[in-house]
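Researcher: Re-running this chain for the archive, since the previous output was lost when a drive failed. Same request as before.
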Amino acid sequence: MEKWTTIKRFRPHPLYILGNLWRYLFLLLIPLLRGLYHVLINSFSLTKGFQLAVNLSAWWEGAWLDLLTLTGFLSLGILLWVSFTVDVLEDGLLVRRGVFRRETTFLPVSRYRCVSVVAPLRIRLFGAVYLRVDTPGGNLKNADLLVMLSRKDCQQLLQLLEAPRTLTPTTLVREYRPKSRYVFVLAMLTSNSFAGVLLISTFVTQVGNLLGEQFSEMLYGTFETVARTLAFGVPPAAFALGCVLVFGYLCAFVASLSRHANFHVVRRGNLLEIDAGLLTYRDYRIEAEKIGYLDIRRSLLTCMLGVYSIFLSTVGYGKFKDDVSALIPCVRRQQLENSLRMLLPEYHLSQRTAGPNRLRSMFRYVWRTVALLAAAEASKILLSILFPGWVELISCVALMAQLPLAWMLAVKFIDLYTAGVSYEQGCYTLRYSKGFSLHQVIIRPERIVKVKQTQSIFQRRNGRCDVYVFSYSEGTQSHHIRDLRQEDFESLFGIGSALDDRRKKEK
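Model: Regenerated structure tokens:
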């Protein structure tokens, strides 16, 4: 007798058979098809019947082992497909898989943090999508459940999962769709040159694996020749590096723009539905009460433009590099609170009540960046003396290192004037900087894992401290606010069980 009562059973899309084995099949099919092609071509102009049979017989003698291996792989794929089932139960999903080693996994619906549908163009053409389920107990690199389903089966499964939360006629539905220019700004902010360079190198490597290493060497050689031709007095190495970074940024920008195109958010009762994507369609379902925290980000450029980007942090959302992680791609300062109130009224952005002393804390905020700028300048001078023939190249490299450091120094000065902590209407607002970004994190007390305070000798003398607030979304995240007053820390976070009491009140 079965322990669980199954409402409906689903199997993966038949494309799943090839999805697991496509690399091996691809490597086997190329020589087999190439040999068969030559057999047909060589037999076309000769005595068709007898010669074709002879050539096919010769081809079979050389290819029978590959064909047997190919048949074995296909048989294994079919067995894996048959043994993979997803059962919808009253309180979750029961997943069974495996041929030689059987594995059964139960995913209770109460533990879901993010249910997403990802549909790349390559499988969408065959009517298939990926269903992904993430829980707090899952792996940081992999989803708890990732299965390829037909589009129809995926819709039915989602409807069955959401059946206990069926909306009533009085359920409030709110919709947000950003303007195209705001999505364009978000793509600019979320793009960086190094991600683009990694994307390009991965593409070239994969193409080289298919077409041969000579093709990859030809691409790199062509790029080097073009860089030397267009350098115009600039050291070729520096010019090539600059071109790689610019081209990498453009590729990352196009990828980010494609990822966030058609961005759309709907709040239905307690459920957030976020969908976006041009070539790859993505649809996320997140319960508002299970959100870890909200992250309102700005860069130096958006500070000048007066716009913000709001990101959502929870298990499974923005987990992989190609995922969407924004809640509101871009919004002006005047519309920020209204947009938050519309989609997530549970989260309140409050004004800063405690922060660093701008004069006394300046050294702690900028000394590292200033030290790196000084070290870069000193290295340039020293290397120019040691290698006088490379002065132009050394100067170009030093400038490329100093520009981002100067940019970061400007961010640190803004952070000095805006950093701090506040608590209002059941939410903490943490303001700090990390890297080149300025953050305003809105987090509820029950989502805080721990709070840590550190003091240097000088801070103890001045009654100051650094505060680390730890939260859990995809792993433990740290939010660092520098040089707060000790009295402010004690009043906001309490001593002993004060924070625990606040958590209980919020629950």
